[in-house]
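Standup notes
- HV: blocked on the assembly model, inputs below
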Amino acid sequence: MPQVCEPARLFALHKQLLQGDRTASEEVASLLLTPITNQTSRKFPFTDEHIVAEGVTDAILDYCENPQKFDATRGVPLDGFIRMAARRNVSNLLRGEKRRKVREEKYGRAKLESPVELSGSVGNLLQKDKKMRVQRPMAEAMTILKDKKDQQIHKLRLQGERRTQVFAQVLEINHLTAEVQRREVKRAKDRIDKVLERNKSSR
Amino acid sequence: MKQPYSNARTLVFAAERAKIRPDYLAWVLAKCIEIEDLSEVDLARFLKIRMPQLPRLGLCLRPRRDHFATDIEQISSKFGLDSYALAKVVRLVDSVSVMTTKKTDSRDSGVLMAARARKDKRKQKEKEESRDKRSKS
């Protein structure tokens, strides 16, 4: 990684901070903020720029508050030390963001499925949405599946049917043993899935 | 492709972040703005500093209590601002924050005790009055 500033200049600033210089923090920020933000942004190319800026800024502000954290005798340059802290901050922020998203989704799902009575219009919207979620793939599948039995099986599956006997009835194999019925039903389902998948990928 | 960050933009962002850190002048300036109900322009005018320099000033560490005069002088000379005005701002924020933080944990402090005593006196007076009324009736 290229040096963002002369090491001697940074070392002098570090010393100033240790001695209690009140303005050295501003100089450190002016010197390091932009180059380290650009470098960190390249390291996290698909990350929101606000998160990157936050991680780098916090790393510099943390260091200036506690310059003793940096041990100059270890041979690591100050900009490298701050860069590492910034990357760690960004990683932590991303992890936190991910956790927050999962929590929100979980909470949202729980809310959606909760039996709380909603106002009439909201109830309608939810029902409509649920209906659409079933109807749209059904309509698509019906155009792809040519066989009547396959269509019926797929329709039942989308409606949430799971009993083997029901599918066996459609396939007209209820006279066979339960084991054979299960196998045949599974085979039919797998075939339908494969046809639909193939069609989806060819589009 | 992301645009490279500019120095001015990152400094303004950093000064904003520093507003939540009491070790930085940005925190002091933000508190002053809040207490005095000022705008940033007003504050810059009071400190005799140009507006674009305000984020840079905010990134300085706040003056230490035991080196107050020298720290104020150092900051003021660097930014060419009015040291008297800066000292006034820091002192104001210090005093207000001391009062607000003490308020929560000062059960035994003189201020609260005096307030309590007055409240108690009033209550006692009310009690006595009601007792007198009852005895009269």
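- HV (later): unblocked. The radius of gyration of chain B is 24 Å. Chain B touches chain A at residues 2, 4-7, 10-11, 13-14, 17-18, 21, 23-24, 56-57, 59-64, 67, 71, 74-75, 78 (CB under 8 Å).
- Next: hand off to the docking folks.
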